[in-house]
Model the fold of this input.
Amino acid sequence: MSAVMISRKVRKWEKLPGKNTFCCDGRVMMARQKGVFYLTLFLIIGTCALFFGFECPYLAVHLSAAIPVFAAVLFLFVMAMLLRTSFSDPGVLPRALPEEATFIEMEIEAANGNVPSGQRPPPRIRNIEINNQIVKLKYCYTCKIFRPPRASHCSICDNCVDRFDHHCPWVGNCVGKRNYRYFYLFTLSLSLLTIYIFTFDIVHVVMRSVEDGFLSALKETPGTVLEVLVCFFTLWSVVGLTGFHTYLISLNQTTNEDIKGSWSGKNRVQNPYSHKNIFKNCCEVLCGPAYPSVLDRRGLMHEDSPVSASSAAPSSSSSSLSFSNNSKPAPPTTKTTAPLIPNEHTPDDAKASIGVSAEQSCSPEDLPPSFIPPLASPETDAEASVAKDNSH
Ligand SMILES: [Zn+2]
Ligand SMILES: [Zn+2]
Done:
């Protein structure tokens, strides 16, 4: 019995490689491991519920009705920032299409020449010049692309992420170019909320202790003890984390760069992204343009699946996968079972633009779409990691 191919439409997120999970038909995107994220939710919601249950009724009557109102506003803001960080695309870069990957491989081999057997091939690096400094773009063997400046491959999500900061299990997502400011606002507002609850826990216990004594006060508000304990331990970590990210933002630096020591003195290179002005750096990181996702998760594409000839319609004889926009159908030779990559460009476009030697220096404008997100701003072009001597 012969088999023919039936084409059906699927959302692109269903075929994305990597280890992200999606829900709400691709609208929500997270990392696969979410256990610690649920713990974060439990701690925040649980502590606030205790505060609203035990402290707020007493404080609203004896101190001010504004106390629970301000706590509610702060709580809603914290939750909004957390969910915005957790449920969004952090800046995942699409992997190369099979045709692009093949072309880049050929280009690298041509640039390297014939490497004698037994010798290691030279590292796959492209050099560009940013702010009078030589910058290296490293090749990602998983995504088959030369990573844009400041991008890095997250081993947990198995994707390259633009302006990669770190993978945060507490928010259940990578923190990168598209969600960093929300992550920072989350830590900042959570610090304020923790200090707020901790302070009014103490105020509540003191006021009750003056009336009834310390022990009877604790008996009347058993939730307060739990809140104080949670807030006390949260305070150090969250306030410390906020302070650390404030320091990074003032330097326009990422956690990844800080850990690697990219701009430390021993490398004798300066951070090319820093404006040498704390205010300008903060403005760029926190108030710069919002970057759109380049994944097009909810876009439609055709997927062919083999069925037996007896049940297949005669017209459904397409033999290759193609995107739904049909602007440039895949060539007939692209019959493949490789995962589809939702690149915004076609293989032909990419081939035309990938015209630089792997060893050749080039400006950011010369980079092919595989290296730079299509909608990157001019500022993005200036964002490049300065080459360090990584030969050691
Ligand atoms: Zn990668
Ligand atoms: Zn990640």
User: Anything to note?
Assistant: The longest helix spans residues 180-212. The pocket of zinc ion (ligand 1) is lined by residues 140, 142-143, 153, 160 (CB under 6 Å). Residues 33-88+179-260 form one domain. Residues 309-392 have pLDDT under 50 and may be disordered.
